[in-house]
Specification:
Radius of gyration: 15 Å
Number of strands: 6
Number of helices: 2
Distance between the termini: 52 Å
Shape: globular
Structural class: mainly beta
Strand order of the largest sheet: 2-1-3-4-5-6
Order of helices and strands: EEHHEEEE
Strand content: 35-45%
Number of domains: 1
């Protein structure tokens, strides 16, 4: 019988503006209240983040509009050498604003990519 650890997906928000490298944004400065319920605790871990979910995130966090961001999803994974559990990237979403109310995004999960464009109200 084989077992695997529960994935326990976590979310990190990073600022992609810094040319020296992405900087993690303090979780106390944004809310995931509505976004978490539709995107973080998803049953289908390989499903891409939808444009509507991203709109919800920016409705709840208007101070982040216009900022290029990365959403990193990390999960526990069993590794064989050495045997143990390691946090690995399960997926990511890259958001690039082309105006204050318009952005393009790339959602990458389980080796597949989806892109889209979103206009914020």
């Amino acid at each position: 019988m084989y077992t695997v650890p529960p994935p326990r997906v976590t979310f990190n928000l990073v600022d992609l503006q810094n040319p020296a490298g992405p900087v993690r944004i303090d979780p106390r400065t944004y809310t995931l209240k509505r976004f978490r319920s539709v995107s973080l605790s998803r049953e289908f871990r390989c499903a891409h983040i939808r444009a509507g979910d991203l709109k919800v995130f920016f409705e709840d966090n208007p101070h982040l509009r216009g900022q290029n961001l990365g959403f990193l999803y990390l999960e526990n994974m069993f590794v064989k050498n050495p045997v143990g559990v390691r946090r690995v990237r399960q997926g990511r979403v890259t958001i690039l604003f082309t105006g204050n109310d318009f952005f393009e995004f790339t959602s990458e999960f389980c080796g597949a990519q989806e892109t889209g464009k979103v206009a914020l109200p």
